[in-house]
Amino acid sequence: MSADYYPTFALDDIANLHESAQVEFKLAGGRDGNGTLPEGMWESYSAFANTLGGEIILGIKEQQGDFTIEGIVNPMPMLSEIWQILQNPQKISHNILAPTDVQIIEIMSKKLIRIHVPCVDVKLRPIYVGTDPYSGTYFRVGDADMHASREQVEQMSLKAGIDLKLKQLKQ
């Protein structure tokens, strides 16, 4: 299996859409309905990066376990915001995405944003939200993003060869 291989799934089969260990849907509609990045998206980014990798699909609504494709009216500003956040170490510890990992896709004449988050090498973990690895590290369990415990963060850091206490003293 090549390093670029990752499982795919069919988004056009609406009746069978569901979240899983490697798929997360977010509405991203915003108050005005034109689209905004959901805060919880970054927890999923951290969780996928620290676990098996996965796909975040923006523009899909969940209601009582059923998913519908709502789309994003104007996805371009959201794409710009994604890249700005990924380049800001105050928001995300590392940008692990390549330009091809973030795409606008169209299904049933509706635009969605598909973000492929690769599983990162243990030497880069933990990937976390914000500036504190202890409060911002997540991992994926089933279809949920779970907050990593202090011990789990320290185990990831040890495997990566990072001394978090020393790193925090420098900040």
UniProtKB/TrEMBL annotation:
The keyword Transport does not apply. Keywords: ATP-binding, Nucleotide-binding. Residues 19-148 form the Schlafen AlbA-2 domain. Gene3D superfamilies: Schlafen, AAA domain. It holds the Pfam family SLFN_AlbA_2. The keyword Membrane does not apply. This is ATP-binding protein. It comes from Shewanella polaris. One of its GO terms (molecular function) is ATP binding. It comes from the Bacteria.
